[in-house]
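Consider a concrete sample entry:
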Amino acid sequence: MISMLIPDEPYLGFAALCHIAGAFCLIPALLHTRTPQGTIAWLISLLAFPYIAVPFYLILGRRTFSGYVETRRRQTDSESPWGELTDKITNCMKPYAIRSADTAGEIMQTLGDIVRLPVCRGNSCQLLIDADNAFPRIYDAIKKAERYILIEFFIIKNDSVGRNLKNLLIERAREGIHIYMLYDEIGSHKLPPGYISALRKEGVKIEPFNGKRHFLSNVLRLNFRNHRKLVVVDGSTAFIGGMNIGREYLGKGALGYWRDTFIQLHGPSVQQTQISFLEDWNWATMSKSTPSTFPRLCWDITPQPEDKTVLVLPSGPADVIPAWKTTIIALANRATHRLWISTPYFVPDEGVMSALQAAALRNVDVRILRPERADHILVKLSSFTFLRDLDTYGIQLWAYKKGFLHQKVILMDDDIATVGTANLDNRSLALNFELTAIVRDPGVCAEVQAMLEKDFYSSVRESLEDYNKKSLGFKMLCNLARLMAPVQ
């Protein structure tokens, strides 16, 4: 009898360890999971299937990025070298900081207070619709750089577009331009070491977002990604938007025509973009770099005659108050006649959905524009399940048919427009580092309105009736996909 039990003893010991680990994970799951549904799901999984649930919880269950929080604290500490630099840049923006007591002004000021950046006038903004307009403008700015270039992308591919960028940066580095480049390890997982080494060989300082930390530490951060896309040249011009570096953004991928939007900025907003990059660089280099790493950094501001009001809003899992979620809810709560949202991924949480529904009940024209084609099938399936929540309240859901729609744009009334990197899904609301330009200007809002009206013309409205006609199997798949929304 004893001999029969011996083979099972290792298994019993392993099982006991798994259940003990699951029990320990229950505490943070109860304390820190943000939704009741998420808490219940983790509790059941950790108790019933700890062998599988524990490693998944360690990677996917964490909701805060404590290491980055510490990096941000150092960068805002006026006693530290980084804090001194941040203060210098922020002080240069103060002459352009404005406060306004009207609705749009209050929204902008609240968001500025959350991210500790001033809302500034003196900016110029130009929409860059699709890669055919955005890439040439970015390349032209890089070619005209006189001091330095800051570049940050979620995805960089070693295809014709990626190689063109690499060759251009090498050319500029050989001409003495200082170049600093960040990429996300998950988004750019196919980027070969040779691409990186070729840039470093020519003096380009390129780093992965999570830096050269040890393996386990990086595994535990897999669920947190840097989704930002930005370029800053000489501290005088900045680009923010939805496109990454790859051929598909030119419409040369499997999804065909790629609909996307960038925005080009001049004025104080460039310095806000620059501060965001410096925070990310500080984290990526494990705070080993100092301001002397950027010998040509410029924070002089030339006010633009267009005099547009802009706030560049960084958001992510290091936020004390979730900046992007607060932005959407604030826009929905204060909209009076229009709230148009264009996003490739529509899987909102309950707070955002409630705000959209409340706006629709006030007779605000609430529209959600998403792509008919999908590059992430789970997100596509999940979004179908929201049709009842939308249709019942009169919120319109539109499917873009001309190609793949990837832009992240919001228009509130005729007052505020946003262009950036953040979607309306759990990743952008809670897990990804994002960057959004929030513009208060009637002219820019009119341009965004015209752009979105053209997009709606290439779209078809979806209804709950369309969903009800689907098969039972399809509906079950959609609801199963929605259960996985927190990790999509």
About this structure: Confidence is low (pLDDT under 50) at residues 1-7, 213-220. The radius of gyration is 23 Å. The chain has three domains: 2-60, 66-98+124-306, 323-487.
